[in-house]
Amino acid sequence: MSDQGHPFRGGRGARPPANPFPVDRGTAPPPREMHVKVSAYGECLAGPRGVRLVEGWEEGLVQGERAALVSPPPVGGRLGSPGRPLAGLVAWARRLRDDLGAALPGRAPRLHVRVSRARVEETLERPGGPPRHWKRVISTGEVLLGETPELPRWSRTTLVEGPGAGWPPGFVPAVARAVADPPEELPARSLPGDLPLAVDAFALADFLRWEAAAWAGGQRRPGSPVAAPVVIVDDPGFPFPARPVDRDGEGEPVRPLAVVRDGRLLVRPRSLVEERRGEGRSTGSAVRPSWRVPGRAGWRFLRLAVRGPAPPWPARVRLVTRTLLAGGHLLVGGVLLDHGWPRARWGLVPAPPPAAWLGGIRAPLGIPVLDGSGVPVAVPPVLVEEGLLE
To answer: How many structural domains are present in the chain?
Structure first.
């Protein structure tokens, strides 16, 4: 039988070393940073048949390059109790549903509203520095239209301030325009070509998100024209900042970014990992969908504004309210507004890519509407060049 692997065996008189597994202390691995996140989550779905509640709690740990570890939440958690996520949600969801139902009386039997609230507490320990701690409460309201909320015909999400707040300004009128169901259906090409053309807030939010993904991915170089000269885009960080300081998914302070000026791209988001690789300074814009995923460069919150005064809505206007991007091809549809009333629906029809719509913006038609259906954005309805659909 071989003695291999038995350090205590050997020739006569041999003595075992003081440490059978000696380690070269000069090659000890450097200490790694550790990121711990605890979150409590609650949601209430209010519909015509009552309410439904969901509550959850998760705790995660990311250390160095290792995958996140999951552990059952101990009493209080590593960072303390994240609170009661369901407190006040039932009354809040019912109130938001009532407010929206008043604007959509014909939709009430198929109207559902989901209110969600997550309280997140994080700590980041890095070698050579004190640990960082921060907290954030994120609340959202979601509109779902359809017989069953699990498979809605239409849905949209927005950020909401807190239990005392209603829908953000402009959101309810935008929902009413988006779900308008006029009795007449018109071929898009039959609409008078001399009518003004406008894009409603939710459709413009989709265009901005699709194009901003290309900006973040480096498909547009800084200095490139990406929108009309009157367009301004900023990333101010979360619209619901943490206290005392807002931090990104890597624990870095969030820096407000001027993204587009005079229609030209100024910057793309960069993470701390990219900074360490020599690819430019971190912009404080690392996002992390979950504690299971390391932070990566991405937009935190995009706010689009249009220079110049907002004219009144045209008496009659072709309004784009629906978008569909499939296989790289864009389809749009909408309604014909006559003095604010949807008289007919048109589309879906082939349309130029989202970049052309951003480049065709002429003037705002109202206040920015907060949309949280993807990357949170705030955009107004806008007038665009009439020839985009010719």
So the answer is: 2
Let me know: does 235 contact 299? Beta carbons within 8 Å: yes
Shared-domain flag, residues 309 and 382: yes
Q: How far apart are CA 96 and CA 165, in angstroms?
A: 9
Check if the beta carbon of residue 384 is closer than 8 Å to that of residue 357.
yes
Say if residue 147 is in the same domain as residue 189: no
Q: Print burial letters for 253-280: b (CB count within 10 Å at least 16), e (below 16).
A: ebbebebbeebebeebbbbbebbeeeee
> How far apart, in Å, are the Cα atoms of 135 and each of 43, 79, 235, 381?
19, 10, 20, 34
Q: Give CA–CA dist 331/353, Å, rounded.
A: 9
Among the three residues 135, 167, 199, which one is the final residue of a domain in this structure? Answer: 167
* Chain segment 217-252, per-residue pLDDT in tens: 889 999 999 999 999 999 998 877 777 788 888 888
**pTM of this structure:** 0.85
Per-residue CA distances from 185 to 95, 190, 197 (Å): 34, 11, 18
Its domain, for residue 80, covers 34-167
**161 and 304 housed in the same domain:** no
Kindly state whether residue 84 falls inside one of the protein's structural domains.
yes
Contact 277, 175 (CB under 8 A): no
- Six-digit token string for 187: 């071929």
Task: Kindly write down the DSSP assignment for every residue of 313-378, as one continuous string.
Answer: PPSEEEEEEEEEEETTEEEEEEEEEETTEEEEEEEEEEE--HHHHHHTEEEE-S--EEE-SSS-EE
Most confident of the ranges 66-70, 289-293, 336-340: 336-340
User: Do residue 190 and residue 122 come from a single domain?
Assistant: no
In this structure, are 254 and 306 located in the same domain?
A: yes
d(Cα 223, Cα 219) in Å, to the nearest integer?
A: 12
Q: Is residue 178 part of a domain?
A: no
Q: Give the residues across from 342 on adjacent strands.
A: 337
